[in-house]
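for the writeup, i need someone to sanity check this before i put it in the appendix. the sequnce is what the collaborator sent (i think, or maybe the updated version? ugh). structure was predicted straight from it, no edits. if anything looks off just tell me and ill rerun, i have time this weekend
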Amino acid sequence: MIAYILRRLLHMIPLLLGITVISFAVIHLAPGKPTTMTEAMNPKFSPEVRQKLERLYGLDKPLHIQYVDWFKRVAKLDFGRSFLDSRPVMDKIKERVGITLAINILAICLILAAALPIGISSAVRQNTLYDKFFTVFVFVGFAMPSFWLALALMDFFGVKMHWFPISGLKSLNFEYLSWPGKLIDMSSHLVLPVFVSAFGGLAGMSRYMRQNMIRELKMPYIYTARAKGLPEKVVIYKHAMKNALLPVVTILGLSVPGLLGGSVILESVFGIPGLGKLFFEAVMSRDYPLIMAELVITSILTLLGNMLADISYACVDPRIRYKKI
């Protein structure tokens, strides 16, 4: 298992390098520079000042030289300072990454809690009205734009029913609340964002679980278990479900990029000060050090998520660890 993990870690290095090269090139070749907004907001912004700023930021150098300079700093775990406020980029990310991870972990837990029972029950009741209802239900969620669903829930549960807050993470009186009160207040702010984040991922996970269960229920060992007189619940939940969960573990790791990418829209709509909102603000202001730092960290989290999924798969199925990857 240790050799398997080491091979996966070594494979991550060229993949991460490729991601940084492509991301760096795409971002720097996009229209607009960090000086563009400053120039637009200040009519006295002269070409001489623009040249001084570009020299200060290192933007006057060829693109490949900029990448090499940036990579040397990153190798020392120095992502530089933000172009907007000159604060260290890592300090700004540390302030935001916790809430984004919390939302995504809660969303994954909610997806598993809902998708597995739906997938299993739909497979057991294949082609019945129950199965067709949940097929339509989860695909409606898959097709529904997350920003539209977020706005609809904010309007109904926030504005009309006053059940949940619709923006931010804390109420105005947060500082005066007791410790349990603060926990309840923050939890109430997270209900709608977590639900919207999970709803889109429900379709894929429940469909994979349904298909895996249908395939497992047709296997010879299931007929043997039934022939032995085992109760149907034991056949389904002890024998079939265990094998049907194997592909779902891998799909769970692959769903991490989608959830992190969705945080950009979700946190912007709900006004949550997380990593996604910070990334959106950095892109709009062409804050290159912050954009690249977020892309690198998000890529590392995604690759680690996929690796953990594969390790979990190898733990469940020992045949995997003996195969060369």
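The two ends are 13 Å apart (CA to CA). The first helix runs from residue 2 to 29.
thx in advance!!
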